[in-house]
């Protein structure tokens, strides 16, 4: 997208100019008292905004918003003057105040006269879709030194121009929906050169309010007057929605539909959308601009084309007749009743339906099909019909969709890209349905949205993007990100752009001082929620291992550390900003950590009870407390700003037992230790053990080596098995093996640690490798308390690594490699690393425009690793994104070979029959990964080279694990092995 850089004058004073409101654009505004340019505001001074009476009503409306936005930052509102050039108001009245002209090319007499008098050049924007510019125009008429002109190529171009200026001067698009405080300004100056933006990357860009109960609906009832049909979604509500969408430079909305009828709930809804500049659509199963709820109320007979065609036709005909004068994108086609497939529809009958719908559109609207925006949504079962081969005219936009979990099911083929109607993408940031709803709070990893929507865009999806945003509230961040990508895909120049965008967005909402930390915090939040969604946590067994690699504990520790960081940023913010920060950042972390606490401590507690740790009771109490805290956190949200967001956190989210939400939040069954013990008061267990002393007299730790991952610490827990106190002492039979906390008194209750409860003491085992014996050996630690003694065996592996080796090194029978840690010199440069993508570190993929590759021919990823263990049945596990086979002509595949041996080629995602999810889909989306294990057979100790070829740009590799006999079960695989040399 073109934009003008500031010329010499501005470069000289560059330090005074801040970066722009739009991502990766330079700002035209500065705010210090001694800046230069055209002054738009100062102490007690606000501009006069002039609009021509013949411009769109939506332009006058946005001029009034801009006037108030100046007031929000300056403390004094601008005034709006409807100034007709022909009656000389504008020409003659030179104002002592700064003058801003807002108008549309070819529509506003103010703009057109500046063009005629050669004061303004609009050639950069004229006749383009939704394009705007703003600039200072010198001596626009005699007696006026300068004016600031905001002009658009069409209604929305002008509206976006005005809102862009509003954001530049310090009013966030989220000032109302997320309570982001405007930035106070004493001075506002505009630079002369024209700032031009547009046309947008995607023609129609918007949001779908969906799954809107209980939260949005409950809040709506408390905030707006209910319509005569009972819905709270009246025009006062939609004005807020439309304004937000336009401030985000969007233009398209699917209205709330669970128990609402957009066009009937308030008869002003339809015309207001058009006045604002919003195109209304209806969701995938609501054809012809009529709501699903209208079917049950007004349709005679059943929603069935085969048996009730005449009545269904009469019903559908009324949609375009009603919305004929309004900006509408018509949804075509038909599905079964209420978001289900139909038992009676065939490809032939769908073809007939669409042809009939198109004839109704042309006759009702009196326009050719090529001028009517029409979409056919390829949702759930619908692609199955299209795949059979249907004769649908090219005017229809084929509106593809994801799998409801953020994985695009289908990108257009080269042939489909030639259709004039182009294609769209329906993407979910929230969902109700199997395997489970996710409709509570934000669980979106922005890097994944970037990866999938860039894939869509780069493979031809340019016409419509819509995001299902659920209740909208709580999804501010992913919504803003999705809309920014849709507006200007090219400003996201590369896979690291998400981090940059997030920092920029954080700066604009919470200020420069908090920007960097907030971006890091929300990046981590995205990673933690990418591991498993809140609603899926109640599935048994618990997703994270409570035995191996300390996976559950370490994961929960990341949540706790994140909360500490977020709370610290919150504490440092001005109080007005704290509210917005709480809503968007602190709340999801606080509430999300609480949910993880419930499930993590439940799973650990049950293991602790088996080990007869008295502390199991503390964990159970913590879980009860976390449930109480959860409702306190929701209450805190509801009491913000005197109850502005009441009911917004009413969504249940704890205790899912099937795909549908539970009626109330409830915690799993807790296990308490109640039986008293007669044998040893001291209990001992060791990392990786499910059993414990005294049930087992001797415990064995997993082996430890100099190459063991630092996070994979060897520890021994010493704990009370009943109420009481004891002292213990740890002794080692090898001077190179030591343990912390080697002499302590354990008491119930005792000292507090993070996840292990009050009475437990953790002794960390460490080895001095300089004095440890070479090769394999073992040491023994004895934990003695009075006359009882437990023994913990510590297997030691101290192998010799050739000094010239570069790569990952085996420890404990495993080599674990993050995908981005390939051998840098030998890996093809064609691969891109997507930082922060996925569950652990990042992802690696081919750029979206890359062609399908033949096995073992194209760009290669090379991994170098060293093993010490001689394995007769080695295996290799690939961790891939849950991306679908979205190229219908070539499924996701990868090839690999080890040590130059035979090349194997794997299709990780089975072919689904068209319109159905592939086998294994549910598990893949729950764990957010396809995990594919291959047998390697014999693998001799020594240096190895693994070569991997990703054959499609539709897939992302995140991690690789070689098992030479030591792999243990876990969700995310072992922590990464040590890398030597790079
Ligand atoms: C600006 O105008 C709005 C809308 O009329 C009003 O609510 C607000 O109080 C005004 N602000 C100032 C600073 O006068
Ligand atoms: C559309 O606009 C025309 C002209 O203003 C008017 O006569 C007609 O009643 C309108 N139709 C609807 C359905 O509102
Ligand atoms: C410890 O004492 C408390 C209070 O007397 C009792 O409720 C609890 O059950 C006891 N714990 C065990 C493990 O017996």
TrEMBL record:
Pfam families assigned? GH115_C, Glyco_hydro_115
Q: Does the keyword Signal apply?
A: yes
Enumerate the spans annotated as Gylcosyl hydrolase 115 C-terminal domain.
Answer: 807-976
Spell out the InterPro entries in the cross-references: GH115 (IPR031924), GH115_C (IPR041437), GH115_sf (IPR042301), Hex-like_dom2 (IPR029018)
Q: Which organism is it from?
A: Podospora appendiculata
What PANTHER family does UniProt report for this protein, alphabetically? GYLCOSYL HYDROLASE 115 C-TERMINAL DOMAIN-CONTAINING PROTEIN, PTHR37842
Answer whether the UniProt record assigns the keyword Signal to this protein.
Answer: yes
GO MF annotation, one: hydrolase activity
Quick one: signal sequence residues?
1-22
Alphabetical keyword list:
Hydrolase, Signal
* Protein name (record): Gylcosyl hydrolase 115 C-terminal domain-containing protein
């Amino acid at each position: 997208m073109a934009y003008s850089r500031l010329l010499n004058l501005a470069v000289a004073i560059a330090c005074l100019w801040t970066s722009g409101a739009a991502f990766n654009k330079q700002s035209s505004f500065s705010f210090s008292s001694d800046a230069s340019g055209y002054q738009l505001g100062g102490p007690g001074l606000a501009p006069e905004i002039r609009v021509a009476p013949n411009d769109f009503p939506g332009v006058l409306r946005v001029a009034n918003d801009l006037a108030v936005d100046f007031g929000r930052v300056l403390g004094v509102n601008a005034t709006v003057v409807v100034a007709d050039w022909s009656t000389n108001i504008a020409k003659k009245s030179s104002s002592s105040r700064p003058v801003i002209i807002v108008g549309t090319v070819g529509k506003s007499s103010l703009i057109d006269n500046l063009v005629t008098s050669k004061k303004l050049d609009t050639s950069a924007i004229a006749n383009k879709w939704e394009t705007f510019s703003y600039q200072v125009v010198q001596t626009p008429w005699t007696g006026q030194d300068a004016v600031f002109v905001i002009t658009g190529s069409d209604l929305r171009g002008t509206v976006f121009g005005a809102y862009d200026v509003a954001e530049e001067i310090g009013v966030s698009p989220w000032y109302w929906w997320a309570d982001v405080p405007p930035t106070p300004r004493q001075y506002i100056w505009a630079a002369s050169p024209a700032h031009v933006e547009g046309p947008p990357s995607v023609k129609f860009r918007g949001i779908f309010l969906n799954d809107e109960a209980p939260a949005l609906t409950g809040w709506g009832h408390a905030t707006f007057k209910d319509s005569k049909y009972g819905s709270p979604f009246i025009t006062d509500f939609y004005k807020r929605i439309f304004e937000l969408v336009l401030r985000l430079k969007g233009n398209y909305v699917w209205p709330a539909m669970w128990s609402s009828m957009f066009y009937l709930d308030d008869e002003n809804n339809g015309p207001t959308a058009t006045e604002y500049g919003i195109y209304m659509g209806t969701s995938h199963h609501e054809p012809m601009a009529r709501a699903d709820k209208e079917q049950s109320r007004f349709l005679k007979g059943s929603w069935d084309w085969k048996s009730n065609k005449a009545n269904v036709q009469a019903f559908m005909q009324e949609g375009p007749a009603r919305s004929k004068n309004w900006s509408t994108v018509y949804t075509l086609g038909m599905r079964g009743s209420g978001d289900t497939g139909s038992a009676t529809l065939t490809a032939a009958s769908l073809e007939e339906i669409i042809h009939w719908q198109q004839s109704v559109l042309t006759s009702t609207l009196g326009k050719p099909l090529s001028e009517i925006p029409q979409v056919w949504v390829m949702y759930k079962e619908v692609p199955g019909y299209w795949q059979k081969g249907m004769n649908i005219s090219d005017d229809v936009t084929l509106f593809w969709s994801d799998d409801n979990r953020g994985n695009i099911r289908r990108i257009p083929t080269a042939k489909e890209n030639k259709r004039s109607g182009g294609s769209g993408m329906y993407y979910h940031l929230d969902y109700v349905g199997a395997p489970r709803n996710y409709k509570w709070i934000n669980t979106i990893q922005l890097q994944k949205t970037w990866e999938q929507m860039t894939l869509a865009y780069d493979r031809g999806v340019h016409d419509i993007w819509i995001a299902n945003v659920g209740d909208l509230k709580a999804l501010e961040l992913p919504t803003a990100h999705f809309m920014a990508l849709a507006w200007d895909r090219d400003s996201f120049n590369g896979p690291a752009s998400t981090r940059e965008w997030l920092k920029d967005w954080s700066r604009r909402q919470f200020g420069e001082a908090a920007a960097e930390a907030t971006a890091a915090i929300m990046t981590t939040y995205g990673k933690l929620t990418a591991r498993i969604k809140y609603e899926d946590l109640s599935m048994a067994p618990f997703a994270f291992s409570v035995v191996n690699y300390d996976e559950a504990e370490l994961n929960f520790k990341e949540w706790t550390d994140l909360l500490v960081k977020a709370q610290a940023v919150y504490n440092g913010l001005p109080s007005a900003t704290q509210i917005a920060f709480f809503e968007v950042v602190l709340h999801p972390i606080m509430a999300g950590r609480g949910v993880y606490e419930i499930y993590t401590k439940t799973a650990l507690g049950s293991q602790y009870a088996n080990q007869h740790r008295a502390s199991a009771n503390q964990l159970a109490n913590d879980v009860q407390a976390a449930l109480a805290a959860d409702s306190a956190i929701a209450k805190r949200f509801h009491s913000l700003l005197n109850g502005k967001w009441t009911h917004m956190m009413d969504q249940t989210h704890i205790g899912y037992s099937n795909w549908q939400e539970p009626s109330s939040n409830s915690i799993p069954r807790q296990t308490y230790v109640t039986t008293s013990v007669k044998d040893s008061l001291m209990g001992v267990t060791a990392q990786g053990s499910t059993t414990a002393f005294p049930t087992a007299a001797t415990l064995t730790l997993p082996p430890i080596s100099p190459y063991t991952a630092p996070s994979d610490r060897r520890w021994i827990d010493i704990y009370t098995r009943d109420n009481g106190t004891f002292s213990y002492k740890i002794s080692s039979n090898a001077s190179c093996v030591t343990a912390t906390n080697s002499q302590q008194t354990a008491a119930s209750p005792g000292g507090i640690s993070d996840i292990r409860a009050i009475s437990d003491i953790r002794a960390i085992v460490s080895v001095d490798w300089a004095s440890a014996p070479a090769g394999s050996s073992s040491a023994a630690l004895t934990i003695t308390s009075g006359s009882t003694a437990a023994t913990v065996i510590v297997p030691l592996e101290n192998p010799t690594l050739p000094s010239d080796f570069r790569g990952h090194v085996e420890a404990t029978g495993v080599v674990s490699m993050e995908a981005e840690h390939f051998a840098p010199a030998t890996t093809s440069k064609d691969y891109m690393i997507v930082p922060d993508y996925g569950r652990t570190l990042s992802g690696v993929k081919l750029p979206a425009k890359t062609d399908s590759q033949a096995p073992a021919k194209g760009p290669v990823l090379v991994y170098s690793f060293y093993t010490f263990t001689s394995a007769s049945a080695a295996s290799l596990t690939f961790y891939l994104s849950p991306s679908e086979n979205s190229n219908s002509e070539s499924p996701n595949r990868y090839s690999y070979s080890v040590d130059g041996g035979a090349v194997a080629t794997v299709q990780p995602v089975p072919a689904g029959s068209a319109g159905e999810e592939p086998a294994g889909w549910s598990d893949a989306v729950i764990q957010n990964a396809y995990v594919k294990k291959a047998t390697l057979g014999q693998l001799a100790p020594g240096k190895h080279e693994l070569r991997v070829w990703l054959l499609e740009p539709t897939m992302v590799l995140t991690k690789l694990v070689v098992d030479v006999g030591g792999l243990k079960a876990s969700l995310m695989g072992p922590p990464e092995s040590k890398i030597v040399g790079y």
